[in-house]
Amino acid sequence: MTSQSPLPRTAHDSPASGNLLRRMYAWTMHWAETPYALPALVALSFAESSFFPIPPDVLLIAICFSTPQRWARLALWCTVASVTGGMLGYALGWGLWDAVGQPLVHFYHGESVIETVQIWYQEYGFLGVFIAAVTPIPYKVFTIASGMMHFDLGLFFLASCLGRGLRFFLVAGLIRLFGSRIRPFLEKNFELAVSALVVLAVLGFAALKLIH
User: Fold this and answer.
1) What whole-number distance in Å separates Cα of residue 212 and Cα of residue 39?
2) How far apart are CA 103 and CA 114, in angstroms?
3) What CA–CA distance (Å, rounded) separates 204 from 194?
4) Taking the domains of the chain in order of start, what are their residue ranges?
5) Tens digits of per-residue pLDDT, 138-147?
6) How far is 83 from 3, CA to CA, in rounded Å?
């Protein structure tokens, strides 16, 4: 792994910053500058699928900027870890709903979306999981809800593989193809860009309430 900083750090990136979101992103992004970038990406991708709030895309983008020739390998690792984490989310919903699954849904204020998720499964089944895996609609809510509702495990696994794979290979592929063109913009506006990802995640939660 190159020692070059994938993206510039600013005073706002300091762990001492008073903004919790900035601290969490700074903590996530600092792994891209260490020899443990790939293990960190795998761990983040795994955790985000069931309980961690920061999307792995931001770390994937940073590492792809440093080593664009590894984009496919990075996207593959990201996909495998994310789907594995999704299976954990499924297990939490299936066997530990009262003890773990429900508290996690409560932590993300997702109680009101569970009924909508159930309607999605009844009406769309496989497609509902696939859409959740690709879009900013919170995948972690779907993984836990899938287990709680005993959604077909094989279809859940297939939809997760296709959806997560499409998302991460698309992100990494775009960096590989257009990285040199968009890097100056991201270097200047990176905080704005990652904040936009958070906004998309919030909109994803809101979308679940609107789609019936």
Assistant:
1) 39
2) 13
3) 15
4) 32-210
5) 778 888 888 9
6) 30
